[in-house]
Amino acid sequence: MHDIPKALEKLATFQRLRRVVMQSSNLTVAVSGGVDSLTLATIAGRLNGQVTVAHALSPAVPSEATQRVRDMARTENWTLKTLNAREFDDPNYIKNPHNRCYFCKSNLYARIRQECHGDLAAGTNLDDLGEYRPGLIAAKENNVLHPFVEAKIDKSELRNFARLLGLPDIATLPAQPCLASRVETGIAISAGDLALIHKIETAAATMMDADDIRCRLTPNGLRLDTSSKPSEAALQAVKTLCEMAGKPFVSHAAYSRGSAFIMPISS
């Protein structure tokens, strides 16, 4: 079993987290494949000697995120439960309202509860509380624990935890919300569109150096948002993929976090 490094043990923030995590003798961590949940699962597993990890297989989850979870489960000796959250069976999710994440997480947590027993935790951190996250309502309704929040740990601190745990590739993972977040609010979610979005982002990533690359589906067509200017070759590759899929390519724009999300106007 892997140990907790001494440098990490010395941190007061980690000791707070230890106390929170050790309150659960039978813990399942919902793991998306991002830095937050992977770091929490690693710590929980090393502290308790064993942890169950639940990961959703979905058109909205990039294949590389699933592979990352599988690889770490083998390395860290987690009990891995892969499941279909069945959010695509939910018409409320498919409609893609501004609170789509509520329906996604409600389905996910309900499925995990069917498969796993004991406490259920998520990788929510302090920074998440300052954003509009309807998924947190679903978490509350399903009694999901938030150890990082209870221990007052933010994103930068948990990234530091990952580095000290000897997980540099995890520590530097860029934010990567689900593929459905690329679809503008009000446009119906479809597995085919998500697959195309992922294909375009993957192709663009191999042809340019940018920290953030998003393919947005808008009412007018697909738009490529990047944190640095793409090459003409990258743009042509994206246009070709759009043409092959019978979808119009709208334009390129500077990356802006959450630009596909639209809140309803209050009356």
Summarize the structure.
The chain is an alpha/beta fold and about 270 residues long.
Characteristic key phrases:
267 residues, 4-stranded parallel β-sheet, 3-stranded mixed β-sheet, 12 helices, 44% helix
Task: Give a description of the structure.
The chain has helices spanning 6-9, 12-21, 35-48, 63-76, 91-94, 100-115, 135-141, 147-150, 155-164, 168-171, 191-207, 232-245; strands at 27-30, 52-56, 79-83, 119-121, 213-218, 221-226, 249-254. The chain is an alpha/beta fold and 267 residues long. Helix 3 (35-48) links the parallel strand 1 and strand 2 (52-56). The mean pLDDT is 94.
Task: Specify Rg, calculated over alpha carbons.
Answer: 19 Å
Q: Please estimate the helix content.
A: 40-55%
Ends: how far apart?
A: 57 Å
**Can you tell me the residue ranges where pLDDT is under 50 for at least 5 consecutive residues?**
none
Structural class designation: alpha/beta
* Major sheet attributes: 4 strands, parallel
The gross shape turns out to be globular
Give the spatial strand order of the biggest sheet: 3-2-1-4
β-strand amount: 5-15%
The oligomeric state is: single chain
According to DSSP, the number of beta strands is 7
Q: Provide mean pLDDT, rounded.
A: 94
Q: Which H/E pattern describes the elements?
A: HHEHEHEHHEHHHHHEEHE
Number of helices: 12
